[in-house]
Every structure is written in C-alpha cells, then in structure tokens.
Amino acid sequence: MCVALNTSVFLWNAGSGDIMELTEHSSQIASVRWSPIVPEIVAIGDYDNKVCLWNIEKQSLLRVMSGHTGRVSSLAWNEYILSSGSRSGQIFHHDVRVSNHHIATLVGHDLEVCGLAYSEDGKYLASGANDNNVMIWTDGETTPLHALIEHSAAVKALAWSPTSKNLLASGGGTQDRQICFWNATNGTLQHSVDTGSQVSSILWSKKTKELVTGHGYSQNQLTVWKYPTMTRLAELTGHQDRVLQLAMSPDGSTVVSLGADEALRLWKVFDCETETKTKRSDKARATSSKLSMHCR
Fold first, then answer.
1. What is the rounded average pLDDT of the residues 241-259?
2. Using CA atoms, how far apart are residues 76 and 51, in angstroms rounded to an integer?
C-alpha cells in the first residue's frame, strides 16, 4: 500500500508489516495511484503542479510530467493513459509510453477536480469537482458527454459498478450528503439516498451487490450498503475525525480507511460469501496502522 504523508511517500507491506519511505518530495503530495498494467509503478501528483512516476522495486524516479497550472489533486489510470485532475479545473491525459506525454486536455469544470475514475471497460471517465458537478467523458473527446448537476457540494467520491458497466455512483460533500446513481449512457439519475453526512469515498464490492462509503461528521464512519435497496448493512466506527479516503485490497475483502485523525484503519468488510447484517457487524474489525503521522 502506498501512503502519502505531507511531503513523504511511504510503502507498507501488508504481508510483513514493513514500512519503507519511497521518497521525500520537495512539496506536499496531493494524490497517488498505482498503475493497473505495471504493478511496480506508482503515480504521484503534487502541489508543484507535477505528476511523477516511480518504480518502487528500483526505488527510482522514472519521469516527471509537467504542464498543470495548479496542484494535481486526482489521478486515474486507463491502461497506459494516466489522467490527472488539477486545481485549475482542467484534466490532462498523459500517454506514459511516449516522450510527448500530454495528448489531450479536458475542459468542463470551473473549480478543482478532486475525483477521477474510469469505468471497468475504460469507455468512460468520470470526474468530480469543487464546482459540485460530475462530468462523464468518452475516449477521444475533450468536452463532456454529460454534465450531472444534482449535487449541491463538492464531489470527490466516484465509483463505477464492477457488474453494471454503465452505472456510476457519486457522493457529495457536507452540504449535500447524497449518494447518486447515474446511467452513464444517457446521463440520467436513477436514484439517490441521503446519507446524513459528507461522503468522501465510495467502493463497490467485487463479488456482491454491495458498496462501502466513507463519511465525515458526526460519526466519521464507514457504512456498508446493499444495492439497489440501499439498506444499511453495517456502520463501522473508530475514526475520531472525518474519513478522507478509502482503498481496497486486491482480493476485494479488506478496506483501508484514512482519517483526518491521522490514523489508517484496516477493515475486513467483504467476503466471498454473502453475509447477514449480524454476521458482518460481528466480523468487521479495524486495526490502527503504525503510519499514524500527519496525513493529507
């Protein structure tokens, strides 16, 4: 697992528990994202408006990609295409295989792009921003296919269903609190649910029709939902401040949450077999990480 803490990037080995510092950056880190094609490559976006590619096995910096005019606050991969969202509101496409990496600029948002996510088949890119809007983009186009304006606060949480390729879930900030479900083909809102608190992150289960969301005030919890009924299956509490981000283990069973309380917690959320609400509540557990440093 790759974790950015202020100006440093750390790697944590879940098997051994070992922690290694990959790099001390010249500026604060705003985003990190593993390559889905080359597992030893991680992309880092920073406050100096740069995107850096690192090889973690060799602990070497492969390249620096410049061009943004604001911090790079979101990243998403589509094979060898790395998309980066900036404080300027622009999204860049980088082809990391070629020297002239900047191949497209997407213009649609007025404020910082704080969330990016590709659909499972790579056909769609979803972006969320501080302008409260969600944009859906298609390959080769630099203007959005759909502009989704249902939210009333910044949208950072975006997740595509692994089983319904055109289904997008988006979560709004403190003044919104909604999870919205969109049909990416026609841009229609299928349904929404008021969660009662800020939605900072969304992850779909890889094996069941369930999803987990990270939240802010007042419980700072993770909530497990049954889709499409949006029945609450479990409330996982432990963070003392808002949940900033969620990430999932490769096997889809474990979720790690990063909180503004400067703690990482590991939760056993999803199993191969569907569980009842009672069993899930009993089995869900959290473990505080040794990486209890200043988190951003």
1. 96
2. 12
